[in-house]
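Internal QA ticket QA-208
Title: Verify multi-chain structure generation after dependency bump
Assignee: T.L.

Test input:
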Amino acid sequence: MKRIRISGCASQLLARNTPRRPSCPYLHRAVAPHNHRIQTRLQTTAATPIDEEIDIEIEAGTEDSTPGPVKAPRNFKEKPLPPSPHPQAAQHSVKLAALRSRLSLHSRFPLQTLARTLVHPSADPNPAFNNASLSVLGGNLLSYYTTEWILCNYPRLPMSVVFAAQYAYIGPVALATIASEWGIEAAAVPGSEVDPGLLQFQRLKSGEKLPSLLRQEVPWKWRNTTTHKIVATDEFGSDQAPVSPHALVNTAVPMEEAAQSFVRALIGSLHLHLGSLLVKRFFRDHFLSRQLDLSSLFDFQTPTRDLSRLCAREGFEAPVARLVSETGRKSRHPVFIVGVYSGKDQLGQAAGSSLDEARIRAAAAALKAWYLYRPIEVTLPSSTENQVDTSRWKPNMVDCGEVIV
Amino acid sequence: MSTCKPLARIHLATRPTSHLQPLIQARHESTTRRHRKLLALPEAPSFTPSSRKPTLIFNPPSAAPSVYHTPLKFLPKDDRRKQLYAAFQTQSTQTSYRKSAPSIAQPGTPLYAPTSAPSPSYPQPAAHLPPRPSAALPAAVRAPYEKKYHLDQNDIKEIQRLRKEDPDHWTRWRLAEKFACSNFFIGLVAKDREKAGRVEREHEAARGRWGTRRREAREDRGRRKALWGRDA
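Actual output:
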């Protein structure tokens, strides 16, 4: 049996022990570019209890920095407090450690980086300390993994459904929901004294309008056709112009925006620290595991026409609606069960309270059955990354496209 | 044969209302044992495996087929499911011919119908079951028709002339009947915008006279109809 470490249980109540050597090999890397910042912080933090850590950091970084400003007398008025918590504070944040273990992240993943992913550019304009660059990387990775999963597993999906599925899996709302399910809480106001385990961003006051950056629409030309949407706009084919996270500096944003930037930045930092293999596993566990009923994303305007076009295109016999069963034809609530047949094969079946309703629903069901085809064996392109052996690769099915009436 | 008594006894074994009638001795199900014996019904045949060995029981409730199960016709040529489906179809056809009635339609079940013998005049068996694979397909909802493409340029000119001459008499339906084509086709070749606008204004005026109830009912019907293509 494993013994419980009593000292670890109530460590927040005990006197803080002396800072140990950093266990993380990345810590030095994380510290190195921060030198200018550490010096400025040194002059400001007179009474804060992190003095010891700062001294140690300076020892670590003295080789490549001029020691001049470090020796300068501390002055409270000249240097304002940093806008976000010091990276060193992450080591002592209970929330961050809890978040890391809750997400089952490897202990190799440094808490300082986890703390940085929680700082939205609206809280800290310094790109070396906010999550803007990480969220750009993570957003690209997320859309890459989702797109390839959807396109390889459902090769026949119409483009509008692909867009909707992308939005459902990694859209802003989904990412904000995921962040709240992970237990991310927001700080009321960002600042250096705030616990680094809280999401830091400049809050949009209630009743205020969205900042103009988040309200921009793409040019009409981009929305003109599906091809334009694929090429020009973001992965959701949305009408909103994509906003660079770097542009949101000092802008009050809603919580959803900050939460989604955190999730993206976490993916990006996982990719940098733990490698793509673990990110793919993380993506599978936290994003693809979410239930999405793809069949509810369809909206057919003329299902019967679409189906007959499809059958003509694929060389099947023309679809015929046949009455499989019925009850209460002369009553107030009749039920008709209609199947759509092509030759002797049934393509779809549905129930309706009128013959027309059942017929149209059956045609829609048949179209969904066509579009929701899923191949048995799928090899994702990303699964062959960094692999010399390419014999496992099997080309995926590529469909000729949706039915256009 | 079985020792259990009919369920109807529960209802029959009541005291006569009039005390002038002789008292009939009735045995009530007053003990646990009698109740247990009474309610010990034979299991449905579909739940009773034919062999003593443990088997799978497949007795799903009736439901519309899932759209995630791609029909045989929609599978690409190189999909392995194609062979599996074909093998299953052969097997089920053979089984259905070998057995007189499937196990879920044995006597004593609601699906059982005594006159299940197919006759030449009535091809479908009377049992409340989906038809056998070899049986004729169900009747079509609307009479199937073939497109004829029989109208030539002169006919189209004639249609346009008639329509222009008297659009009130030669409506789309009358012309479609005369030329044996669809009224959609008449609308394609001889569209009368002036009359269409007039009729639309008349309808608009008629809709304007509707009360709240009728208008809301029509609007709801339109909303329901929009859902047909969405949540099938």
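Spot checks passed. Residues 7-80 of chain A form one domain.
Status: verified.
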